[in-house]
Structure formats: C-alpha cells, structure tokens
Design goal:
Blueprint: H1 2-20, H2 27-37, E1 41-45, H3 48-62, E2 66-68, E3 84-86, E4 95-97, E5 101-103, E6 108-111, H4 113-116, E7 127-133, E8 137-138, H5 141-152, E9 161-163, E10 185-191
Parallel strand pairs: 1-10, 2-3, 4-7, 5-8, 7-10
Antiparallel strand pairs: 5-6, 6-9
C-alpha cells in the first residue's frame, strides 16, 4: 500500500511540475491563442484565391451586401465578389481594412490613421474584416510602435489604437475605458507571406 502512495505522489508531483513549466509559443501561435480566446474569428490563407473564397464566405454567412473600404489595394480581392463598396466611414456597413501590426502577447490588432483616418474605433462599424499578413506579427505593443516609427520615418501616422475585444459586449467594467469600447465583431484574414 505504501508503495502505491509513493507512485501516485510522484506522478502528482510530476504533473504539477509540468503545469508550472513555461510554454514558449511562436509569435503566430501566441497571437492566435489570445485572439481566439477573446472571441476573434481567424481564417488562415496560403494564396490569394483562399483570401477571396474566405471573404466571399464571410459575406454570405452574415448576409452583407455592402462594405466600407478605404484602402486602395484591397478592392482587388472584391473584383470577383458581388458586393457594393463605399469609402465613407459614416455608414454602418462592415469595414474591410488592413492593419499596422498583430500583437502576439495580447492578441490585439493595431490600427492607425492609415486605416481609420481621423475616426475613433467607437465611431466605426461594429463589424470589421481585417486583411493582414504573417510579416505583421510583433511580440508586443512596444515592438509595434517601434515598427510604425521605423516604417514611416518622419511621417508617423496618428490615431494609433487597437481592437482588444472581438465580441460585441459594450458594457465594460473598467472605468478607464468608460465610453470608449474597443469591442468589434472581427474576422481576420491572415495571409502567409513569409
């Protein structure tokens, strides 16, 4: 009987030690883990046809017939899809956009005035479809801001903000966020470019 206790005690200790070991995930795995836990919808694409197919399926699933798109390169994905485009941020249609960076340690998506113009996230549609590439992964917010500074040199964009929640729960108990919810129903089309 004493022998069995030693065996089970050892295995319990080993299990506890395994739980306490740090898990080192790659940037993309870390991002996806946090992103999905926050309610984000993630679609991985290895070629342009998959991007178009996934975009078409998102539009069909939600019965969306109109998109907001302010980017000059993104409409190429919509050429084969029956959808109306507008560049007016005043409508409540889903917003199809790019982003600056994907922040791995939090699962956040960073935007700037290049995507949002002068609008706050709360002033935009509740529904976002974001096209991003695997080369946009950064470890944390500090690296994201350094990347923006490096990429844009002396012409740093303004209005830098991040979507941090991917479900439409507007009530946030954090008094620091009062009236400024970053909640969006967000789909991420992640294109493998590395």
């Amino acid at each position: 009987m004493n022998f069995l206790k030693k065996i089970f005690k050892t295995t319990a200790q080993e299990k506890e030690e395994i739980k306490q070991q740090p898990v080192n995930l790659s940037l993309d795995d870390n991002f996806v883990h946090h992103f999905i836990n926050k309610g984000g919808k993630f679609l991985y694409c290895t070629n342009k046809d998959e991007v178009i197919s996934n975009l078409k399926n998102i539009l069909l699933e939600n019965n969306w017939k109109k998109l907001i798109c302010t980017d000059i390169d993104l409409p190429k994905f919509l050429a084969k899809i029956d959808v109306n485009l507008t560049d007016s941020l005043k409508t409540n249609a889903p917003f199809f956009t790019t982003c600056e960076h994907l922040i791995a340690d939090k699962g956040d998506i960073l935007f700037s005035s290049n995507q949002l113009r002068s609008k706050k996230l709360t002033e935009l549609s509740d529904h976002f479809i974001v096209y991003a590439t695997t080369s946009q992964f950064v470890k944390n917010t500090g690296e994201a801001l350094t990347g923006i500074k490096t990429n844009f040199g002396g012409n740093i964009p303004t209005n830098i903000s991040a979507v941090k929640k991917y479900t439409l729960k507007k009530n946030d108990d954090n008094f620091m966020n009062y009236g400024n919810s970053n909640s969006k129903n967000l789909y991420l089309l992640l294109f493998e470019d590395l």
